[in-house]
Amino acid sequence: MADSVIELTDATFDQTIHNSDAPVLVDFWAPWCAPCVMIAPILKEIADEYGDKVKICRINVDDARDSAMEFGISAIPTLILFKDSQVQKKWVGLTSKKDLAAAIDEQL
Q: Does 33 participate in catalysis according to the annotation?
């Protein structure tokens, strides 16, 4: 994944969400999940297009079980949009770039 998408861990998750003035979109994923692999290029496009206006992050649920449990992740991919450390929107399953961009635009 390109530098425009931030890889999170349990150790960096809270700090990244709480210390951001910009909206943060987090993709809860795993490498064995086909829809997760399919959404990765969409996330990179959004990250490249929005630049510093939004943080696009991914967290591997196999490696970051604490964060996955904290947000009740039971299916992947799950994407959560945060603003001011609060959950603004949540998607479960493959989601379109249009839907993600519309939700991000609402938070800008």
A: yes
* CA 30/CA 37 separation, integer angstroms: 8
Mean pLDDT of 54-74: 96
Q: Is 36 a catalytic residue?
A: yes
Which one of the listed residues 1, 6, 33, 40 is annotated catalytic? 33
Q: Give me the catalytic one of 17, 24, 36, 54.
A: 36
Look at 2 and 56; give whichever has higher pLDDT: 56
Q: What domains can be seen in the chain, in order of their start residue?
A: 5-107 (3.40.30.10)
Instruction: Please write the tens of the pLDDT for every residue from 2-17.
Output: 469 999 999 999 999 9
Number of H helices, E strands in the chain: 4, 5
